[in-house]
Automatic annotation (TrEMBL):
Annotated HAMAP family: MutS2 (MF_00092)
Family in the record: Belongs to the DNA mismatch repair MutS family. MutS2 subfamily.
Lineage: Bacteria, Pseudomonadati, Bacteroidota, Sphingobacteriia, Sphingobacteriales
Sequence positions that bind ATP: 341-348
UniProt protein name: Endonuclease MutS2
InterPro entries the UniProt entry points to: DNA_mismatch_repair_MutS_C (IPR000432), DNA_mismatch_repair_MutS_core (IPR007696), DNA_mismatch_repair_MutS_sf (IPR036187), MutS (IPR045076), MutS2 (IPR005747), P-loop_NTPase (IPR027417), Smr_dom (IPR002625), Smr_dom_sf (IPR036063)
Gene3D superfamilies, sorted: 3.30.1370.110, P-loop containing nucleotide triphosphate hydrolases (3.40.50.300)
SUPFAM superfamilies: DNA repair protein MutS, domain III (SSF48334), P-loop containing nucleoside triphosphate hydrolases (SSF52540), SMR domain-like (SSF160443)
Amino acid sequence: MIYPENAVDKLGFTEIKALIKTYCLSEMGRQMVDKIQPMHQFDQINKFMRQTHEFKEILVNDAPLPIEHLYAIRNLAEKARVEGAFLTEEEFFHVLLSLKTVYAVIRYFNERAGQYPNLEALFEHLPIEKSVVAAIERVIDIKGKIKSNASPALAEIIIGIAKAEQEARKRIDQVFKSAQGSGWTADGNLTVRDGRLCIPLLSENKRKVKGFIHDESATGQTVFIEPEEVFHLNNKVRDLEFDKRREVIRILIALTDTLRPNIPLLLAYHSLLSKLDFVRAKALFALELEAEMPQLTKEAALELRNARHPLLLLNFKKEKQTVVPLNVKIDEQQRVIVVSGPNAGGKSVAMKTIGLLQLMAQSGLLIPADESSTIGIFRQFFADIGDDQSIESDLSTYSAHLSKMKYFAEHANGKTLVFIDEFGTGTDPQFGGPIAEAVLEVLNRKKIRGVITTHYSNLKNFANATEGLENASMLFDNAAMRPLYILETGRPGSSYAFEIAQKIGLPTDVLQAAKQKISAQQKKVDALLVDLEREKKNIYDAKRILEQRAGNLDKLQQENESLQHYLDENKKTILKQAKLEAQEIIKNANKLVENTIAEIKQHQADKEKTKELRQNLHHVLKEHHVPEAKVKAAAKVATDQEIKIGDWVKITESGNIAQVLEVAKDNLILAMGDLRSVVKRKRVEKLADKQVPKEVKRTNRSIGSEELSGFYPELDVRGMRTEDAIQAIEKHFDKAVMMGFPSLKIIHGKGDGILRKMIRDYLRKYTQVNRMEDEHPDRGGDGITYVYLN
């Protein structure tokens, strides 16, 4: 309940609805926006808000929703409901486009099943009736016109019209050329008059051509005659046009009869299109506001963080300015916020921001505030904002205020959110202040929630001493004499009346006279408030500096950690590169040693030549800091590491000899007879071919890369005995593990489920198995098991 009714206008909610309407594509969407109002059911608010949030996600992160054609098909469905009535070509075309839009939307969400659950609920259980589309497409073309072959009779009529028109044109051309040759025609070509093709003749020659005169020129010098030779042909065309019209109506009546049984479905489609347009408009408006979905609670409470007034935000956007965010909390302990402070300091804007955002949230709209904000649910909204004096009701401004206070006091409760601007004004402050305090005391006893703005000191004192009420003030920079538009709870604020008057330029003598007229106690209170405000401003500035320094410290710490991480990563890279370079040096040194030995042999160990070669070798090794003793050992290690497919290796731990089937980074796939195994490269030692016993070569049956490349991770064991199936699965499983496949598909059939159970029990003993799942019900269900590997 909202009281008075114009409270939605005073808080700006009517303007919000008008802005949302501008984003609608259809009239039916705009009609739904007109019906927006605050709700009280938690589930309903949550559903509407989540639908808007999901549509916003689509607009930002997904492909566009195919909403191209939105027509109000409800009226067309109601028209088609009447027996004997029929839809026109254009109306059927609108139905066709709307149905195609509906089906495109349903397909869109089916492709994203589960991703947008609240939007999917809009068309849950809504069928796709393609027969209706097919029936319309048989009759209506892509331009929205009746197809020439919509019926055999229509096709025949259209052909007859074409022939008759062609014959009439041919005959009239002959008459026109003959009249031109005789010099009877006026300037110009054939023209149409009364829907008939006519010849322009000079008035004095109108008796020389037999026919019907349809018109004459403004001067009377030219007449337009339909020749007698084509008169009957044009009549035939006219008759055929009437036949065509009757046949088209017959076709449209028949098509409407086909559509009539699906009227309820068309109404459901209309509802879906209306809701989609409605939700889309709300989502687009949320994007414009940079709005988020707050946390919802069933309690009569709210907490806004970094909230901004929507209308102020949009105006400031145009002017490229920013809105000072609002932070406020209203709950069981802090039920009513009494806001004081200077004029034009933002008290009313802060109050209206709270009221407007609460109305928006309870109407299912996203709000321009942090998503960590909390919004509760109120059943009543009472507002006294602005001047509501009434000449008709003989009410003054203050009388209008009192009438509202009376209603508030009688009907408010713990679920009521109350907004009162400039509480107590409109009459003598000596009496207005106490009356306002008494009303506030009554409202507080009823445990209402709300925001009240005031300049009265007695209300500030009452709020300070009363449980459930909390003073708040709008911060003011008394050095620069300007408001900061920041709401600070905990302390009342000064009105800064004298300071603002001084800034405006009120004469000094006037200010001095005014100060002498107020009481000493009031001077002390006001001076105390000013001092408190100054102290609060200093604390606030110090707090901002500390927060900024803390932020800088956090940033430096993050940069330090990032730099340390970078150095650690670089260290690994440098060491790795150094090792590679060392290996390359050793490899080159090994080659140099071999070449030196070869040259010594070549020169038959000549002493001088040998000495020269040894000195050269010693110089090169010293240059690279490589000990000669390590050259051969390093060369051997480098040689051992060069393992390729087909090589023989010995597993260092067990001493078993195996042949390399595949090399995959640091892993080797080895074959030992029929057994296949995956071993780390560092756990094997390369063997020369002559080191491998012949019996090992004979018994080792190499699979080869060709067989592995033809492997497919799918196995069909239907019809096999359990033992045979397990044996086949074991071989297939080993190959899948060796080749690093992420999953294995086993087709075992349904039957009594015994084979399925035995297979799953067998596979559970392998640590390489992560989980097992059934196939999708549409593609085999529990007759197929997917085995997912680690």
